[in-house]
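Escalated from tier 1: flavin mononucleotide holo job.
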Amino acid sequence: MNTIEAIKTRRNIKQFKADPIDRDKVISWLEAATFSPNHRMTEPWKVAFVGPETRAKLNHKTDFGGAPLVLLLTSKGSAMPIEKEENAYAVACFAQSFMLAAASEGAGTFWSSLAAAPKMREILEVPDEDVVIGIFGVGYPQEVPEAKERISIAEKIVELP
Ligand SMILES: Cc1cc2nc3c(=O)[nH]c(=O)nc-3n(C[C@H](O)[C@H](O)[C@H](O)COP(=O)(O)O)c2cc1C
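Tier 2 regenerated the structure:
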């Protein structure tokens, strides 16, 4: 699968098979994602493997589509607002890299913003200064949905003098 194909075929997966996912594979996708862009090499990504006890406390409405694995991605905070912001951009890049790496090997990911809520941050032990990027179900998709139509990029382009 080439990169453009991977970008276009990755979907947010809502329902997973019960099949477990190999931890070494997940680590290899995370490792690949560490090559994502990040300003001044802050490498601001933090990854938590969410265990069953914590996962149950989150009480997600579909339990992450039955994904065999749940990962939390957070971004290192900073006293400098610009650095904090740029760190979050870098971890969003990391998230996309991870999702594409997983998709290119037949796995799927479900991005949920549930973890950003204050109560969820507390359950997930996220330090106050850090930014929650998302919490992700990871596994093998029961079904890969059709892509939702996108607005043509031509409508998003402006020409500056
Ligand atoms: C910051 C962010 C937060 C998201 N939070 C949720 C969420 O809470 N629940 C959900 O179903 N999808 C969530 N998504 C996934 C989007 O709904 C999904 O990417 C979008 O519908 C496009 O579908 P696709 O990824 O399959 O192309 C989130 C995506 C991003 C980037």
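Strands lie at 45-49, 69-75, 108-112, 131-139.
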